[in-house]
Write a structure and sequence with these properties.
The protein has about 290 residues and is of the alpha/beta class. The protein is about 60% helix and about 10% strand.
Length: about 290
């Protein structure tokens, strides 16, 4: 329930309910000390509209956010987390899961040089989805008449997972892919790329990626070629998942990120960042 819902149910002032909620969350945090994490996940959230960001760091083994802060997505803002954690606890970190944002990587390599870096599968696949959407836009601009009509209004259909589509959505997807060979090829390449995270050794993962890259030849899929070049530049962090010691529940990472997005939407308009910070840091704590 939202603060507004609780206030209405209990016939209390909205501000009173919010103040009580903040007090409760502050006490939760006081009773839940932060142990030295072994595996952390780094993500950023955007505050309202515009390029205002905050960084959220989670302990992925204890399954809870532990830090919210920074002024933006800069290396200096990321440094603040490691300063807050302290050198003694930071030395315990053996794996850092993040997106391919250079500032996060630079700060991490500087502050915990012995930790392995793993680029999050869901952020990587988001880049590939963006490449697919660029192909869709290119095809829409290239075509006209009936051929273009198949593409119009089908962004969600094309970018969604099949299991998330309704029966009508799946029919529209089949119709679209049957009508446009280039989009069909791009869609199949996107769907197959997720297989990269199933390999148990880097050698097999590399072989799969090389074959996937080779399949781009003669396809005239420039956004995909750009994506492949990006993966090549960040290969060590992508392939890190194939090592047994770097296995982490990527489903939990994505679930936590989605939960934070929901909290962010609920807090939208409150203009109280401290309230959002408390909501995020306590969202996975057990109620006491």
């Amino acid at each position: 329930m939202t603060v507004k819902d609780v206030a209405k149910e209990l016939k209390l002032d909205w501000h009173t309910v919010k103040a009580l909620d903040k007090e409760y969350m502050e006490e939760q945090l006081r009773r839940s000390s932060v142990a030295a994490p072994g595996v952390i996940g780094i993500d950023e959230i955007a505050l309202r509209k515009g390029h205002r960001y905050r960084i959220v760091v989670s302990d992925l083994e204890r399954r809870r956010p532990i830090w919210y802060g920074g002024e933006n997505r800069s290396e200096q803002s990321m440094d603040r987390f490691y300063e807050w954690l302290g050198g003694k606890k930071a030395k315990k970190i053996r794996l850092v899961v993040m997106d391919m944002w250079k500032a996060f990587e630079k700060s991490t390599r500087k502050n915990v040089p012995l930790a392995a870096i793993l680029f999050d599968k869901f952020h990587v696949m988001r880049h590939l989805a963006e490449a697919l959407d660029k192909v869709r836009k290119m095809e829409y601009a290239r075509l006209s008449g009936k051929d273009r009509s198949y593409i119009k209004g089908q962004k969600y259909t094309l970018l969604s997972s099949k299991e998330n589509l309704t029966l009508d959505g799946r029919k529209a997807l089949r119709k679209l892919l049957k009508a446009n060979k280039r989009l069909h090829t791009a869609y199949l390449l996107k769907e197959s790329f997720g297989q990269l995270w199933s390999y148990q050794t880097e050698g097999w993962a590399r072989r799969f990626f090389d074959n996937w890259k080779d399949s781009l030849k003669w396809q005239r899929l420039k956004p995909y070629e750009t994506f492949a070049e990006m993966i090549e530049r960040h290969w060590d962090g992508v392939a890190a998942y194939s090592k047994p010691e770097n296995k982490v529940s990527l489903g939990f990472v994505e679930g936590l990120n989605n939960k934070i997005r929901v909290l962010q939407r609920r807090a939208y308009g409150l203009r109280d960042e401290e309230y959002l910070r408390l909501k995020i840091l306590t969202c996975m704590l057990k109620e006491r």
